[in-house]
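PROTEIN ENTRY
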Amino acid sequence: MAEAQRRFIDYIMELKLRCRFEEEIGEGCRLAPREVSCLSALSPGESVSARELAGRVGLSPSRASRLIMGLRTKGMILEAFDEKDRRAVSIRLTPSGERLIQRIEAKKNECEKRLLSAFNREQLRVVRDGLATLSLAFEGGAHETVRDN
């Protein structure tokens, strides 16, 4: 397909195939890519509900629940049940999970450094602005901005 005829979705699909960040991290830590995403959505010291975590990583509550169970079994997260409502679960990283987050962040920095080295300052600005707009479009909040440009 000629570059001028490529659709946005084709670029997105290609980028998704080429970016193997979660797989690379997961292989070294014996985690599935979705588990890496789930852990990456948590900050050290933060406590979130299972539903909020599911929303952050774009998963159904039932799929997120299975991931949470696996991460708990691997010692990466802790769950605390609300005494008033046993259905409400609060999730936070364990010390092992926090150490893994540090490794994930270091790997993300290394990956980003490699990517950024391919662009000059103006290209970086254009790419960053484009990615921000694309991210908003996925959230449904940039329809006017995207159409106006």
User: Anything to note?
Assistant: The domain at 3-118 is CATH 1.10.10.10 (Arc Repressor Mutant, subunit A).
